[in-house]
Write a structure and sequence with these properties.
By secondary structure, the chain is of the alpha+beta class. The protein is 31% helix and 21% strand. Strands 1, 2, 3, 4, 5, 6, 7, 8, 9 and 10 form a ten-stranded antiparallel sheet that branches. The protein is globular, with a radius of gyration of 23 Å. The structure holds protoporphyrin IX containing FE. Residues 54, 69-72, 75, 108, 110, 127, 129, 143-145, 150, 155, 158, 212-214, 285, 318-319, 335, 338-339, 342-343, 346-347, 350 line the site of protoporphyrin IX containing FE.
Length: 370
């Protein structure tokens, strides 16, 4: 009986029946947790999509690039701070939003796609990933893109789209028939693709808006929760990108520009939270929320320096969107857990592989005077 008491944490004097009930509850919880891990690992459902399938498909489409991220492979590490203005504190109890709180930030700017040495180009999706270090070991990690909506709603559609958009070796472009059939089967993606195509592409990283795209929930000190989507909006006046600029011979012109800009002074973005209404979908990143939703400017991100990827810096961070501080919670968006699982798989594979220098290397940053 004492052993049972110890195992279950039950107070002395608890009856055997009550103890057995307690044990079976613990067993059920354990079985549930193990089952959840097994599900996330894809061990229970060989026919369904697993994180390994997703990462295999990246490798199939892009070829092997050991040591690099399987997506957003070309990147540069950045660092700075976030200073909260206090306006976010009524929505979220996360320490990062407390008035005048200064939170150190490490991050990475990158180009979407699995080619680590691709030339910078006009239409390639740009990204900003950030890790906020909060007191007490808490962290907030987020990855954002310079597009207003995401092209797919589900992990399965993402998986299909990867193959549909694979460049044909003969033309260097995706097979139009395959793309057409993907969009015919995914009308939401067709609508999102039109919105993405219609966006204004700006001249560089520093004048790009980066959207978080997935919905989350801000949780206030009184327990109330608000659906949100966030974006980092540049202080710098946005200048449209020109085709002539993207035809420049410097293959790293976007990264080199940012390095040169940071050398002359910091670059800033406001962290704007858009508040969702109950009618707004939180599980569909292909859909924009209606215009005119309340927005809250919560503070300023200041990036002060850039360094090439190397051991121990942003190269070795997994910007898992589910690493959240108390006060920010996931929504029901199915992409969130899929991202978390796929990033982990990509991280595990690249962490165990030999490394080559990033395209945005020491040479580039020294050339730009850093
Ligand atoms: C099911 C959907 C998605 C999958 C499977 C996926 C997959 C991946 C993978 C494998 C990586 C490389 C991770 C690493 O090795 O560290 C990555 C990076 C990234 N993804 Fe996604 N992604 C998805 C959706 C999204 C969405 C919705 C966004 C934008 C909100 C996004 C933004 C990013 C960013 C910014 C990075 C680069 C992070 C960095 O610089 O390390 N992804 N993605």
């Amino acid at each position: 009986m004492t052993l049972l008491n110890d195992l279950t944490g039950a107070p002395p004097g608890t009856t055997t029946r009550a103890l057995l009930l307690r044990l079976s509850t613990i067993g059920a919880v354990l079985a549930g947790s193990v089952g959840a891990f097994a599900y996330a690992g894809g061990w229970l459902s060989p026919a369904t999509l697993t994180p390994a399938h997703v990462i295999d498909r990246f490798e199939q489409v892009n070829g092997p690039h050991p040591g690099f991220r399987r997506n957003h492979a070309k990147g540069l590490c950045v660092a700075g701070r976030f200073v909260a203005n206090g306006a976010g504190a009524r929505l979220s109890k996360a320490n990062v939003f407390a008035a005048n709180r200064v939170t150190p930030v490490e991050g990475r700017v990158a180009l979407a796609g699995g080619q680590p040495y691709a030339a910078d180009a006009l239409a390639t999706v740009r990204s900003l990933a950030l890790r906020f270090r909060l007191p007490g070991g808490e962290e907030w990690r987020t990855g954002m893109n310079n597009i207003p909506v995401f092209p797919v709603r589900t992990p399965e559609a993402f998986y299909e789209q990867l193959l549909a958009a694979k460049p044909d070796p003969a033309t260097g472009k995706p097979d139009p028939e395959r793309l057409k059939s993907f969009f015919a089967n995914h009308p939401k993606s067709a609508k999102a693709a039109a919105l993405i195509k219609a966006r204004t592409i700006t001249s560089g990283f520093a004048d790009s808006t980066f959207w978080g795209l997935n919905a989350f929930r801000f949780v206030a000190a009184d327990g109330s929760a608000t659906p949100v989507r966030w974006a980092f909006v540049p202080e710098m006046q946005a200048t449209p990108e020109t085709a002539a600029r993207s035809a420049m011979t410097d293959k790293n012109y976007l990264f080199d520009d940012l390095i040169a800009q940071l050398r002359h002074g910091p670059r800033r973005w406001q962290l704007i939270a858009t508040l969702g209404q109950p009618s707004d979908a939180t599980d569909d990143a292909t859909l924009p929320w209606p215009a005119g939703r309340e927005t809250v400017d919560t503070g300023t991100l200041t990036l002060t320096n850039a360094v090439p990827e190397e051991a121990g810096n942003c190269r070795d961070i997994n910007f898992d969107p589910l690493v959240l501080p108390d006060g920010i919670a996931p929504s029901d968006d199915p992409l969130l857990s899929a991202r978390s699982a796929a990033y982990s798989r990509s991280f595990t594979r690249r962490a165990g592989e030999a490394k080559s220098a990033s395209a945005v290397s020491e040479m580039t940053t020294q050339g730009a005077g850093l």
